[in-house]
Amino acid sequence: QGLEEIRKNPARDKRNVGYQGIAYRIFFCAKGQEIWLLHAIEKKKRKTPAADLDLAYDRMQNILNGNVRRI
């Protein structure tokens, strides 16, 4: 259990279809049999902004500690 990331970086993807050179990140975590989407960003710089990582981490902590309810 922890913060996980899916990366889509068109600079490294030879297919580069539909992304127009834009990099994306999707942050998620797993709890039991569930996968929770925490945050998604369009990267504009090389380094992922600390505020986005902090937001995803805080949301993960809330989920893992049972402070979030499903609707």
Please give a structural write-up.
The chain is an alpha+beta fold. 21% of the residues lie in helices and 34% in strands. It contains 1 helix and 3 strands; from the N terminus they run βββα. The protein has a 3-stranded antiparallel beta sheet with strand order 1-2-3, covered by helices on one side. β2 (23-31) and β3 form a beta hairpin. The chain is elongated. 8% of the residues are buried. The mean pLDDT is 84.
Could you give the order of the helices and strands?
A: EEEH
Please give the oligomerization state of what you see.
single chain
**How large is the count of helical segments?**
1
Low-confidence stretches: none
Mean of the pLDDT scores? 84
Helical coverage, percent range: 10-25%
The count of β-strands is: 3
- Structure classification: alpha+beta
Strand content: 25-35%
Physical arrangement of strands within the biggest beta sheet: 1-2-3
Please outline the major beta sheet. Answer: 3 strands, antiparallel
Q: In whole angstroms, how far apart are the ends? A: 22 Å
Cα Rg:
14 Å
Estimate the global geometry from the Cα principal axes: elongated
